[in-house]
Design brief:
Blueprint lengths: L6 H58 L15 E4 L8 E2 L6 E2 L5 E2 L4 E2 L2 E11 L2 E12 L2 E12 L7
Antiparallel strand pairs: 1-2, 1-6, 3-4, 3-5, 6-7, 7-8
């Protein structure tokens, strides 16, 4: 009796090995893609939170400058769409420009390499004591449009009375 593999056994073995390898490579590719997408979502979340905090900082600077009344606590925070930048104390007029990242890893509009991310800050006056701020981050990645929105309401709870 001859010992060895028949052609059919070899073909089946090769098919099983190829199937396993294709599955492993597909899983690895999906994992790398998922990591890239999640990284972008984390960056977008940080950019949205930063946008809200920069608007909050303007409100608090108004308070520090004794602008605490219904008619002046919102100075620099008119209703509308804006851009914000970490190293500026005021809002920038809105235009569709991508955020850039500089050599120190800071996101801004002045210099550096363009990123995937666009940020729009929308301010709405609710009443004399409250504003609604929406930070929307959009980006294109992997042929898909992505968007993340964060919202906060800021109040004039430090109002001075006469």
């Amino acid at each position: 009796m001859k010992r060895g593999f028949t052609l059919m056994e070899v073909l089946i073995s090769v098919a099983v090995i190829i199937t396993v390898l294709v599955g492993v490579l597909s899983l690895a590719t999906a994992s790398v893609s998922s990591i890239r997408i999640n990284r972008s979502k984390i960056i977008a979340d940080g950019l949205a939170e930063e946008g809200l905090e920069l608007v909050k900082n303007i409100r608090e600077n108004n308070w520090l400058n004794y602008k605490r009344k219904a008619d002046n606590w919102r100075d620099g925070l008119s209703s509308g769409d804006y851009r914000v930048q970490y190293n500026l104390e005021n809002l920038l007029s809105y235009s569709v420009l991508p955020l850039k990242i500089d050599s120190n890893g800071f996101y801004q509009y002045d210099n550096g390499a363009d990123t995937l991310f666009y940020r729009k800050i929308t301010i709405q006056h609710i009443d004399d004591y409250q504003i609604r701020v929406i930070a929307q981050i959009t980006w294109q990645e992997g042929g898909r449009s992505n968007s993340l929105t964060a919202e906060a309401r800021f109040y004039n709870w430090l109002e001075e009375t006469e």
